């Protein structure tokens, strides 16, 4: 069993210009990962710039004054590094994995992209076509389609409800000049976090960050706030009719925002509910009733809102039954205590998963960046595990009663026929 002395050490430094650098040193590892996060994304877009954050994410790989798109790819390849990026509702994250000894060279390329990307006109037009195809791909994939539609519906009227990819209309119309303006207004020092995990030296990364990110514009992006009275749109159902063999659905319940006092209890509840083959949803929906091949629950947490979501794909004739059964499994937490055996197993699953994830530098570089952003500082793994270990069955029941008693979830589905309604 790991002890506190064997856990990796976390360090956080803030550069004079406001850029934060967070590291998790894991000695003895060959690999490492480095990322640059910008805490401004889809939720800050205006209607006419919808999808700009994601579009820019693509374009940052397309050239700087000192490197062409091909040179960026070739340089990563020549040193054995793998680079990628993603866009969420509240962040854009650029990252790369490599041997720990290669992190300085990897950071050089990543930082050049982040600070100096020139968004060449010809690359903008080529990548516009790629993003439009990505939008079509998501429309054609039922599970992606219904996830995106559910997310927009659940957070309708909230900045989080803005579609990450934008629309064909906004992507087709946005100009290079508008994209550059958007980047300069959002890629600012106070919103930038450099994270690194692996066998690396914190002080060396700090020195390199000060040099490579010194030209970033200073300041903090303007963040769009939700109306203080806003509530997520539960108690509604929407069905998108398509000629398909299955009905895919999401259903969701509101949760407190990221970093809330109940987060460890909710992590245990979610593990018992819908994480893995031993979960209640897997056993009841799949194993006992043969309603679905895939069924699970997940939590989506943001700075000012969050949701518990359940997904399943099932036959259209049994979709309502699946919705009813899933809702019933949520309400079980309100009415009965999780057994000590189930509670202990759920905690052990979480503990082992988090400890095993320490061997994955890519996962860790995202985690420490995320907790730094949402909690104000990276969360030591030992504190996270202590919080999970302290959760009692009574606390799981109490938080379920607080959050789910009397709540009718939102249900959105895609498939043939009329689709399922709200749980009965």
Automatic annotation (TrEMBL):
Residues 20-167 form the Peptidase M16 N-terminal domain. Residues 174-349 form the Peptidase M16 C-terminal domain. It comes from the Bacteria. Belongs to the peptidase M16 family. This is Insulinase family protein. It comes from Geomonas diazotrophica.
């Amino acid at each position: 069993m790991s002890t506190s002395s064997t856990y990796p050490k976390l360090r956080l430094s803030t550069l004079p210009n406001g850029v934060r650098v967070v590291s998790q040193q894991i000695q003895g590892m060959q690999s490492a990962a480095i990322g640059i996060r910008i805490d401004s994304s889809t939720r800050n877009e205006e209607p006419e710039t919808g999808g700009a954050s994601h579009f820019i994410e693509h374009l940052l790989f397309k050239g700087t004054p000192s490197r062409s798109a091909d040179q960026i790819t070739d340089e990563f390849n020549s040193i054995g590094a793998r680079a990628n990026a993603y866009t969420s509702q509240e962040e854009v994250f650029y990252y790369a994995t490599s041997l720990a000894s290669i992190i300085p060279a990897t950071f050089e390329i990543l930082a050049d992209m982040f600070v100096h990307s020139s968004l060449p006109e010809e690359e903008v037009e080529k990548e516009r076509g790629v993003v439009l195809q990505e939008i079509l791909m998501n429309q054609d994939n039922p599970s992606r389609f219904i996830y995106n539609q559910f997310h927009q519906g659940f957070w309708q009227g909230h900045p989080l409800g803005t579609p990450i990819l934008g629309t064909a209309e906004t992507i087709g119309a946005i100009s290079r000049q508008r994209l550059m303006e958007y980047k300069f207004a959002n890629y600012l020092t106070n919103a930038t976090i450099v994270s690194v995990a692996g066998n690396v030296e914190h002080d060396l990364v700090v020195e390199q960050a000060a040099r490579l990110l010194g030209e970033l514009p200073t300041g903090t992006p303007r963040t769009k706030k939700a109306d203080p009275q806003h509530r997520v749109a539960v108690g509604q159902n929407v069905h998108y009719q398509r000629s398909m063999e299955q009905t895919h659905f999401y259903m969701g319940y509101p949760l407190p925002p990221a970093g809330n006092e109940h987060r460890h209890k909710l992590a245990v509840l979610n593990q018992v509910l819908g994480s893995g083959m031993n979960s209640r949803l897997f056993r009841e929906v799949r194993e006992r009733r043969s309603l679905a091949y895939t069924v699970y629950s997940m939590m989506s947490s943001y700075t000012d809102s969050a949701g518990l979501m359940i997904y399943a794909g099932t036959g259209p004739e049994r979709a309502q039954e699946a919705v009813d059964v899933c809702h019933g499994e949520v309400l079980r937490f309100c009415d009965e205590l999780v057994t000590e055996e189930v509670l202990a197993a759920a905690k052990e699953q979480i503990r082992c998963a988090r400890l095993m994830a320490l061997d994955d530098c890519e996962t860790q570089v995202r985690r420490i960046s995320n907790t730094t952003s949402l909690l104000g500082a990276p969360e030591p793994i030992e504190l996270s595990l202590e919080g999970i270990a302290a959760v009692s069955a009574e606390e799981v029941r109490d938080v379920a009663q607080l959050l789910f008693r009397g709540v009718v979830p939102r249900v959105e589905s895609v498939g043939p026929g009329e689709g399922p309604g709200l749980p009965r």
